[in-house]
Amino acid sequence: MIGRKYINMALALPFLISWGFIIFATNIGMIYAGRIFAGIATGAVCVVAPMFISEIGETSIRGALGSFFQLFLTMGILLVYAAGSVVDWRTLSGICAIAPAMLAVGMIFLPESPVHLVKKERRNDAIQAIKWLWGKQCNSRAAIQVIQNDVDAAAGKASMRDLWTIPANRAGLIICLCLMLFQQISGINAVIFYTQPIFQSAGSSLDASLCTIIVGVVQVFMTFGSTLLIDKAGRRILLMQSSIVMGACLTMLGIYFHLKDGGTDVTAIGWLPLVSLVLFIVSLLSWFRPNSMDDDG
């Protein structure tokens, strides 16, 4: 295993290839190829990046650092919405290519994850990494011992086979898989990727670019409060409520387009697409915490 640092650096390559295909696309096949590379890289980075962040953070701030991944994800979407309102799609793709390049360069100056170094029995390197990350005044040897204890405990955890053969694990696995499946088929990707075309097709009196940016802003601000809301309201109730609201929002949006395409004058309800998508995004936030299925025992 080459470590979290170098995997993150390597993932910049498929991202750059992806944007290269899209920037210089002369046919739809090149755009498809670019999206395939981007999809693979995105799936990988959504696993490796949070892992690296959690492993380099000091214990007292590790939870806060972990929440930044989702926050910056929504901020990135907002920036793309804003830039996309003033530049063409090729230029926007060029702007997006800057991010993976910055990732690759920035990672050069960071140390490897102390957890990975401990797993590889490179304790001296792990101590130096902790001093670089947490400051020279930290008790690096005590931190290494905590990491070593965690690594030893993880080594004795259940195998992949136990996820299915043990009834309690199997139930949790099925529930988690169903939650993630329904999250993906709820329409979120279609809404995020096609927010501006949706508003343009709606023919609303409101500016499509402005409506898109409003949706992006709502995502960012709701991400701040989503963790507190989820912890206080409870996962099950919030999931049920959000599912109902999301379904109602998509239904309202569908009715709007049905009326519009049928020749009905929808000027009086031109605000409906914006309200529907904003409420959809707000309700969706409760889907981002599937880890309550974890069994600490």
UniProtKB/TrEMBL annotation:
UniProt GO cellular component terms = plasma membrane
| Gene Ontology molecular-function annotations | transmembrane transporter activity
For whether the record's keyword set contains Transmembrane, the answer is yes
Query: Transmembrane ranges?
Result: 7-26, 32-53, 65-83, 89-110, 171-194, 206-230, 237-257, 269-288
The protein's UniProt keywords, in alphabetical order, are: Cell membrane, Glycoprotein, Membrane, Sugar transport, Transmembrane, Transmembrane helix, Transport
Q: Which domain of life is it from?
A: Eukaryota
Q: How does it sit in the membrane?
A: Multi-pass membrane protein
Q: Where is the signal peptide?
A: none
* Localization of this protein: Cell membrane
- Tell me which residues make up the Major facilitator superfamily (MFS) profile domain: 1-297
Note the PANTHER family from the entry: FACILITATED TREHALOSE TRANSPORTER TRET1-1-LIKE PROTEIN, PTHR48021
Protein name stated in the entry: Major facilitator superfamily (MFS) profile domain-containing protein
The record lists the lineage as: Eukaryota, Metazoa, Ecdysozoa, Arthropoda, Hexapoda
